[in-house]
Amino acid sequence: RSSDLTDARKELKSAKSDAKARKDERTKKLVESKKKAVQRIEEQLMKLEVQATDREENKQIALGTSKLNYLDPRISVAWCKKYGIPIEKIYNKTQREKFAWAIDMAEDDYEF
């Protein structure tokens, strides 16, 4: 990916030098398209770096633990109902069976 960025920057540099020499509309458009390509690749690279960091940080955290141990299931169920999110996205089958009482009890306006 960083090689793509290096290549795109080289192309932008050569397009800029062509634009200085020629000074026509076509080369100006070419420079703009090369600028956009460099920017797009930089954004993709940054996005990939953030994803890699998140992935690495999430290895240290058991994401489901606090939801099961510390959060009242009625709150999660009410949130799902309020925003129209299927409860299956939050709880697996075993957890839905375990928290059936909360699923039956909580409405979308439930307040803790």
Nutshell version of this structure?
This protein is mostly helical and 112 residues long. The protein is 76% helix and 0% strand. The two termini are 48 Å apart.
Please describe what this structure looks like.
This protein is mainly α. Helix content is 76%, strand content 0%. The chain has helices at 2-22, 25-58, 63-69, 73-83, 93-98, 100-105. Helix 1 (2-22) runs antiparallel to helix 2. The chain is elongated. It starts with a helix and ends in a 7-residue tail after the last helix. The model has no long low-confidence stretch (mean pLDDT 82).
Radius of gyration, whole Å: 26 Å
Query: End-to-end span in angstroms?
Result: 48 Å
Number of helices: 6
How do the SSEs run, as a string of H and E?
HHHHHH
The structural class is mainly alpha
Largest sheet: none
Q: Please give the number of β-strands.
A: 0
What is the averaged pLDDT score?
82
Helical percentage: over 70%
Poorly predicted runs of 5 or more residues = none
- Overall geometry: elongated
Percent strand equals under 5%
